[in-house]
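Running this now, will post back.
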Amino acid sequence: MRPVDALLLEFDGIIADTAASRRQAFDIAFDEWQLNISAARFRETCVGSPTRDALQLLTTQFRRRVDAVDLDLMATRVDAGFAAEISRGAVLIAGSRSAILQLSNNLRLGVVSHLPREPMQYLLAMAGLSDAFNFVIGEEDAFPPKPDPSPYLAALARLGQHTDRVVAVESSASGIKSARSAGLQCIACGDIPAHYALDAEAFAPSIAGWTVSGIAALLPPADHPPV
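Update: finished.
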């Protein structure tokens, strides 16, 4: 088994189910720009991506001319809408709270997400999980965003350690690529298409019931090169 002493988790889809809240917020832009975005396109373009990047990609795909200032303003509106949706409540992934509390007794934990930091901190506080995490990195804390390795490199700098004992837990293709590019072992988790999960070292349906030894058992042996 590989020793593990730090775990870095994406928030969206692993700690909390924010998909409906985020889609509702993005509809602010979709309605104003008269874009018909299917669930499949939303997953492909917006899940795992910072708000502005997702909006910019969509305007390119639909050949809509939106200047940089208007794009920034719309991203701000969408993020504000997301924060408002979150304040009305979001559902933690089943088993995530108990797993985090258990793991925090033995590991350093961090959130490394594409979501804005403030709504995540609000939800963690409401769930009594603020003290379980050493830090929360959101979309405004590292640039370029996922799939660039910068968010995970920023997390490693805060941990002050190398990658061999740090594991990322990701719920999107861009997140997996970001973690792997930073040299981290990565476990794909949650509702993620199988062809994306193949790029990680392991897959688990959720973090429910995780223990330190269980995490290590999911990973390839220390002398086995990553896939």
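The first strand starts at residue 6 and ends at 9. More later if anyone needs it.
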